[in-house]
């Protein structure tokens, strides 16, 4: 299509006055306008407006293929917005995008921070534990949050993790007439009237960040003693040589410490453990390090579960290593698209 039917439109808190002419023209021509209630109200969508379904689904937009449709998103539609989902489902000729400055850009502009040196995280739909990989003295980050209550919860989490001295800037309704910015230390923050949409800028202080190399102390893990010890784990990860995006089979995973270290390097892991108390520890560790989205935990015996696992690039056998498992692993190597690195260990 030379004239795309779908417009992905960024919108700020200033509503229509902040939109360029091209966005205004697309809105005027739209038959249907999708967005959240706040966005629809900001542009005066009226009877043309349709709210997103819960849970989020792009199917209602795709069902209108060929009609004039506008999808509203905060700021840049491709930064934690619907743009990526829709663009992945459609040819590039069927859509166009008109972004505006989003929360992260506006926050950096208000604070005078270099955006390229600032970590930007969407914690409106992710746990606070995702911060653990980033926190270090002097680190700066901007985080979008779900609502006003999440601001106090984040301050409490940071304080509990030893980062109570961190400076926080609470950035409310940036770019619109309700804009407000307030500053406090995490340990002393007490705000009950926070406006949405809201983000928090963090300048970390007071705590100890995680080491950047494998071999985390055993004390950081939930475990029953069945854990690959720190020096051995560091050597193991060096031998496995994780690369971003690669998949590890962690068989007889115990506490899941190898899976955690692998995922911290940017990979994904399938952790297999037959004892329910240990799989509970693996899940707890994955969550505590903010890595639950990268570590899949399987209850059962490795030999029985192998056919259900996605092909890996590396294997670590931490427990339950026997002749039957030894025989099964080479048999599956032919299914892998790249050579695997194998570092077995007996418990």
Automatic annotation (TrEMBL):
UniProt key word Methyltransferase: yes
Highest rank taxon of the organism: Bacteria
InterPro entries: 4pyrrol_Mease, 4pyrrol_Methylase_sf, 4pyrrole_Mease_sub1, CbiE, Cobalamin_biosynth_MTase, SAM-dependent_MTases_sf
Pfam families: TP_methylase (PF00590)
Keywords for the protein's UniProt record, in alphabetical order: Cobalamin biosynthesis, Methyltransferase, S-adenosyl-L-methionine, Transferase
Domain Tetrapyrrole methylase: residue ranges: 7-186
Keyword Cell cycle (UniProt): no
An example Gene Ontology molecular-function term: protein methyltransferase activity
Pathway field: Cofactor biosynthesis; adenosylcobalamin biosynthesis
GO terms (BP aspect): cobalamin biosynthetic process; methylation
Name of the molecule in the record: Putative precorrin-6y C5,15-methyltransferase
Origin species: Frigidibacter mobilis
